[in-house]
Design goal:
By secondary structure, the chain is α/β, with parallel strands linked by helices. It has helices at 26-40, 60-70, 84-96, 107-115; strands at 2-4, 12-17, 19-21, 43-48, 52-55, 74-80, 101-104. It contains four helices and seven strands, in the order βββαββαβαβα.
């Protein structure tokens, strides 16, 4: 499941990503990011992966489409988590999803980075 966080504002958007992600979950993420890009030209994105398990194979196409559609407008991406592989994911996100990506183990630090 992907849910938008209430602290989101303007082109700074945050989402919790939990459980197993399906193609349908992108129906929450894509329109919000598209609206921010339309209004501001760029987006600054936080993904809280603390309760994320996995992405179903059927969602991979939506994931790749998201990356290709928004990569140039994705000013930065903060990945919040508590696992080593999530740190690696932040490194992989930079060339494919965002102009700059960083890993955080604190959601407050991630918001502070995005909002600075």
């Amino acid at each position: 499941m992907i849910e938008q966080l209430p602290r989101s504002h303007d082109n700074v958007l945050g989402f919790t990503v939990s459980g197993d992600i399906t193609k349908d979950d992108y129906a929450v993420l894509d329109p919000a990011v598209a609206a921010a890009v339309k209004d501001s030209g760029t987006v600054r994105l936080l993904l809280d992966l603390t309760d994320f398990h996995w992405e179903k194979a059927s969602a991979w196409g939506a994931d790749l489409h998201f990356g290709s559609e928004f990569h140039k407008a994705m000013e930065c991406m903060a990945i919040v988590g508590d696992k080593k592989w999530e740190q690696w994911l932040a490194k992989l996100a930079q060339p494919f999803y965002a102009q700059e990506a960083k890993y955080f183990d604190s959601i407050d630090e991630a918001w502070a980075w995005l909002e600075s």
